[in-house]
Amino acid sequence: MTNFYSLPPEICDAIFIKVQRVDIIALSRTVQLTHALAIPHLYRTIAMSDYNRITLLLHTLVQDKRLCNMVLRLELHWQPQPAELLAKLAFQLCHILPKLSNLVHLTISEALGKSNWIYEHLNMPSLREFHAFTPVSARFLERHPHLRDVTIQNLDTQASTTGTANLTEPHFLRFLNCGSNNLLNICSDGKARRTLRRIDWRQPPHLHYGSMPTPLFDSEAIHRVASHVIQVNYLQGVSDMPYPLAPAWVSVKRVGIRVDRWSSWPLDSNPPARLFNNLAISFPNTDTLDVIIEPITGACSEKHEILDIWRQIQNNLAVFPRLMRVTLCGWNWTRSSPTAAFEETECDLKDIPNLSVDYP
């Protein structure tokens, strides 16, 4: 029988990819050989949510540079801690993050709070996915122009000499508490981003403020940067829908809206026609509409209530001439042509966008 010693490294790697993490841990405790083979897989992706385990992990990484080189994905989400414990963790992160030379993905909890100073001089050349649930400075993004997948809770433009960055090839941008100008803050040259395919935001661009006729941002530059975006999601409730975008984003095919069902969209009245009309003007080529009603559990999971909401939605879909699909709380309606009737069909839940505003 062929043993591990005689297998090529790429075959061993393929085997461990197929093995559950808990089984890899068990294998690592058997003999020295399986331990050596399993460790790189155990440290390749690390996701933790317990403060004590996180501090132990960081202590272990400090002691072993070899382990630091193995970490490709690090997700840390912990509960709020007393100031002295948070300070300890922040200093650990400040010391260890620069040592993770191959890190591709970093997610940091909102519990980091005001200790976001750890980003001040942090430079990780391999980083491509960055999700910060505390403020991050434009200076940090300026040092990481090749980021592709970015979540920004708040963008601090005061901490940078220019207040801007210039991501060269972003794919997915998620703005949680940022204003509309932030798209230009992080793509400061104002040029089209051919790689940018999706934008999620809580505070989408407002064409005007109240009755003021003057735009609050360079709408032409915003339009140019986002000219290849195909999916846009509104993370905020839709009771205060902004004015339509001008120029319209004709590249967008899929639009998602998150609705607070207890306030923004009462079930005893039709959804606001202005919402759908403004969406259709902003994104005239929409073919898929995702409606996320929160909460999506409890009463909203009852089929009769879902169908009631669906009927309300249907009354306002005429403004989307190209619409072919609507998803709602895990339910799915499609039609074969823009003039055909919608029919209920199977829905792949993995295909429904995550419109939460918290840690995934």
Structural class: alpha/beta
Beta-strand content: 15-25%
| Uncertain ranges | 207-214, 296-300
Tally the beta strands: 15
Mean pLDDT: 81
Apparent shape = globular
Helical content stands at 25-40%
User: How are the strands of the biggest sheet laid out side by side?
Assistant: 1-2-3-4-6-8-9-10-11-12-13-14-15
Main β-sheet description: 13 strands, mixed
What is the rounded Rg? 23 Å
Reading the helices and strands in chain order gives HHHEHHEHEEEHEEEHEHEEHEHEEE
What is the count of DSSP helices, taking H or I runs of 4+ residues?
11
N-to-C terminal Cα separation, in Å? 44 Å
Compact summary:
The chain has 360 residues and is of the alpha/beta class. It is built from eleven helices and 15 strands.
Describe the structure.
This protein has 360 residues and is an alpha/beta fold. It has a domain at 1-46. It is built from 11 helices and 15 strands. Strands 1-2-3-4-6-8-9-10-11-12-13-14-15 form a 13-stranded mixed sheet. Helix 2 (21-28) packs antiparallel against helix 3 and helix 4 (51-63) packs parallel to helix 6 (83-96). The longest helix has 14 residues, at 83-96. The two termini are 44 Å apart. 29% of the residues are buried.
Feature tags:
360 residues; alpha/beta; 13-stranded mixed beta sheet; two-stranded parallel sheet; 28% helix; globular
Q: Which helices and strands appear, and what pairs or packs with what?
A:
Layout: H1 9-17, H2 21-28, H3 32-44, E1 45-48, H4 51-63, H5 65-70, E2 73-76, H6 83-96, E3 105-108, E4 129-132, E5 136-137, H7 138-142, E6 149-152, E7 155-156, E8 172-175, H8 182-186, E9 198-201, H9 219-225, E10 231-234, E11 254-260, H10 273-282, E12 288-294, H11 303-314, E13 325-328, E14 331-334, E15 343-345
